Hints:
By secondary structure, the chain is an alpha/beta fold. Helices cover 56% and strands 10% of the residues.
Amino acid sequence: MVLADLGRRINGALSALNRAPTIDDKLLDAMLKEICTALLESDVNVKLVASLRTRVRSKVKAALEGDKGREAQRKNVVQKAVFDELVGLVNPGVEPYKPKKGQPNVLMAVGLQGNGKTTTCTKLAVYYQKRGFKSCIVCADTFRAGAFDQTRQSATKAKVAYFGSYTETDPVVIAAQGVDKFRKERFEIIIVDTSGRHKQEKDLFQEMEMIGRAVQPDMTILVLDASIGQAAEAQSRAFKESADFGAIIVTKMDGHAKGGGAISAVAATQTPIIFLGTGEHLSDLERFAPEPFISKMLGMGDIQGLVEHMQDIAQQNPEKQKEVMKNLEQGKFSIRDWREQMGNVMNMGPISKFASMIPGLPDMAGSEDEISSKFKRMIYMTDSMTGYELESDGLCFMDMEKDGKTPIRTNWRAQRVARGSGTSVAEVEEMLFQYRMMANMAKGAGGKNGWLQAMQKMQ
Ligand code: GDP
């Protein structure tokens, strides 16, 4: 079952419980059964699923024992227990290495041929490059004919520096030369791509060890294909014995039914997953962290991802961002600020990935083109607004009834904007709703879990 479907199934089970007037054992069992079946269909290991079931049940029991609290609170207890256990399922409890600016960070990629290693190396270089790291790739795969050509082509397309050789046959020499060269040139992310096949498996592991010794990586990354599902555990253990890696990237998560199985199997080996490969394009790489991952899967958004996205944008246009931050500090987030953020985000890469990070963003399911055209229409609407409206917090779009308090929703401003932008009043209202949701998040800035605070903490 692909992740979006898994998320929907689990959500469905939780909502069924929510709709019921009271929680009882029978209801709890039915919900757990549905969740566990969905997890098993995603190839999550039977033992892990069984332990999730037991733990949710005992957590809920302990929390509800003797609790005559309100039904809504009791439902929250169940939801939280399910959420926490799902997070536990994909949480290895280990923090990965974090590349640092202003110094060389050598990342070595290992993994079997065909798993997506070379593609992932370029995606990684692009990812870090976009975030202000000077990035490059060293192709140390001399076993596969054409490996260097593949790197050369994709690195050229991505405008990333690369190193390799058509004549040198010793991968250890190439790796050492390439890393040495790029260190001297003050590159910050140096990615070493290694071979994924040999005549004998033993030789492959030996080669990885030798390259590792020569380049002294700060982090070795195992690249694994999601389609192997829970077999990911055995494969990662086999690699771990020879090439001690510190992180994993699971590729081909797009549309693969066994993705959930692969992720949970990897977590069981206590190695952090750092990214998921979600397609063949260079931007199809998503940061992975347990809690945001589950939150996003369940359609609850990913605030942390959103904050990081905003920070990346800030890197690219620090002056503009400073202005927005200043406004936020004063609790201001106008429609113009929102438009600015949306415009920036659209330049950052696939908008469909960003959309799913926003909690509750309705109707945002669809192809990249559909979502992107929806965002463009939102921008057109703001183009039809006056300066006064753009600087406002959207309240001027609300006419009041005679009592001065009750808003009449559709007013002449919305009608004018709809006409001017070739959209409908309903669309303008939806856009204003989305702006308000974002503004509320932004304005939570002063509060404990505010956006601003989160951003500052992460800097
Ligand atoms: P390597 O042999 O491990 O270096 O694998 P490659 O990088 O050559 O990738 C093998 C195939 O998998 C290529 O056709 C890639 O386009 C494809 N691929 C890699 N990552 C992904 C991914 O995340 N999703 C999808 N759908 N295909 C991928």
